[in-house]
Specification:
By secondary structure, the chain is an alpha/beta fold. Helices cover 32% and strands 17% of the residues. Helix 1 runs parallel beside helix 8 and helix 2 (40-51) packs across helix 3.
Amino acid sequence: MLLYAITDRSQLQTPLLDRVALLLQAGVDYLQVREKDLPGRELLALLDAVLSLPNPHGTKVLVNERVDVALAAGAHGVHLPAHAVAPSRIRVITPPGFVIGVSCHCLEEVERAEAEGAADLAVFGPVFDTPSKRMYGPPVGVEALEQAARGRRIPVLALGGITLENFRLCRGAAGIAAISLFQAADHPAGVCRVLRAKADSFTAFPKA
């Protein structure tokens, strides 16, 4: 199971870098730095600080939308909103191994991301209700997630209102993406252990 942690310093009572250090130690597969309000110079400084932290599990650090900042910092990749430039346009200017994730809110967006062939993963949701995603409308639900994930060549991760109580309902997802689930946990490493221990309760669909 892929674990994808997303930052939002506005939800924290402690310094963001302290929380990021815990997430890196916990061994999430991806860390998306999502501080969208930061201007480029400040975002670059933050990324430099994140990338200088110990990263014992080789977590991939992605930047929200700002390809220029990701490249300048030497980050591992970028995460693109659904309305952003097509991943295929990004791929031609990025180095080998650069990770491109995309946000998808419906089946058609997942299908488009897969058909273009340039995205490495899709984050799909919101699956459950969550205040941070209400701007995108009502939650899509677990049935829509299952349909979006079935037979995909790229991993589809569930996003939105994911908790330790409901994550096993995300049938077919290749993993879990979340802000609060990881960021608000007292012990992120324990959350990661629980998620991975229960990963076999997901129904894995064959790849296309």
